[in-house]
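Hi, here's the filled form for the chain we discussed.

Project: internal
Contact: R.S.
Residues: 389
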Amino acid sequence: MIVSQSKTRNAQGRPPFECTALLLQGGGALGAYQAGVYEALAEAGIHPDWVAGISIGAINCAIVAGNPPERRVEKLRQFWERITTDVFASWSKSCLTPMVTGDWVRGLMNQVSANLTLLNGAPGFFLPRLPSPWLHPTGTIEATSFYDTAALRNTLESVVDFDRINAQEMRFSVGAVNVRSGNFVYFDSTTHTISPEHVMASGALPPGFAAIEVDGERYWDGGLISNTPLQWVMDSIPRQDTLAFQVDLWSARGDFPGNMAEVETRQKEILYSSRTRANTDQFKRAQRVRNTVATLLETLPDDLKNDPNAKLLSSVADRKVYNIVHLIYRARNYEGSSKDYEFSRSSMETHWRAGYHDTVRTLRHPNVLKRPANHEGVAVFDLEQDGRD
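And the returned structure, exactly as it came back:
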């Protein structure tokens, strides 16, 4: 549990929106940042009505939706401590002094930790296939991935109550890709009976992990097509006044790379950021049109309001409002392209603290929990752009 000198202020009752949504991007080991975000939201008395995620975001969503409010942070902590290791803990305390610590030392430790993950897997999550998939017969599931994720099913069942998810107290959505058709699909608690396989399918990133079978079809990680569930929630019908916390693990913005290692890192960031800001801007434009159409229809005389063209326009017109709150993990200088599979306990704690403190700072903005008053009915908040303390 994160301990803060200044606790997040408690929200005064429920925010004035019909729906509070928590949207979690994929990003492997970086997902501890999302757990920190949720802890800060829970401290502020902000509890989502809808969680939607991709990959590791799907797992975090399942833990949130599959537990009562008072146990969610505890179960998130249990999951993240189970899948991470503190192999360097005793060594770093005895061998590293303030005189020799620095980004280069932490970077070296992180790379060694990531290499250990490649060799040994992550406990309770995935293990290397032995023998290698190249030695298995073609056509077998063992021949299609380097790691076996069978352990993840047991872990999910220990931290998630799937009956609770399927009771639909909170809406739950996770994205995956049908391997044969290439179509992106969402497994949603309003249309599916959610099981561990739905969550595992959302995080089955090839060639590391094998496709997961759901209802006779096999699925890969949704991040192959879209790593951000923002559009799924924003385009949902019927529309609702929505307060959305979009938690991204990859920043679309970054410095120009100076070497091949930085090129690989930057490529991942661009690929998996999924153009979140561009999608937000597009949504703002669409919502401005919906509001304008609603205003126009109100000015029509009664005889024209029943015109078929007017009725068609009325189907897209609305005056719903949206606050979109961006929380984006900013990688440290020592983190490289292996940051998404570097499962050390110290990095997990660093990511968790970053998510917690970024959320505390964001909730200090006076308008984050207020309904927008602008014409398009959309307000976007970003810690980096707003520059708040």
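Let me know if anything looks off before we file it.
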